[in-house]
Input
Amino acid sequence: MTLHRNGPEAETTDGLRDRLVRVGVELVNTEGAQALSLREIARRAGVSHGAPRRYFPAHLDLLSAIARQGFAELAARIAEEDPETAPARERIEALARVYLDYAGSRRGMYELMFRHELLESGRLGLRETSLPLFAHLAALLARVRPDADPVLLAGALWANLHGIAQLWHWGSLGLATGADDPGPLLSAALDAHLGPAETAP
Output
């Protein structure tokens, strides 16, 4: 359906909705999650401050739509870097490295994606967007640690990765460990959850 208006708001409903989300993604990537007000997104999209409410009745609806783009980007990066023919442990390590890299390179989006009120609200199927990544990790872990509950193990490893990402960003881990990058911390976390990696003779 086309809106009968002149200017930017005269484009199709889907087109304007997508543009609002796209502007929100650009804003969160450049200025952080705290910059994502409906008014600022509308201003940058070139529409009236009330326009977003036509497509996103609540602020959380728009934030959820933006966060969905973050999960889609993270999933695409994981799929691109996934060595599918490699042993499961190598695939887990690749996934973990992508996760930490994403947390560092998309800081604002990363913080938005895991805001509890977005995930708890169930808006726009955000759980359905995020849970497949968790299920993928659990499936890989089940192949490495068949003795453990893969869901609980995935939760523990994810919590560990999230902690590394946050504490590294804040500078706490570098200060405490003297590490120059989070790579050794990731290796230690994988060894703690999966056992030491096998080395070639």
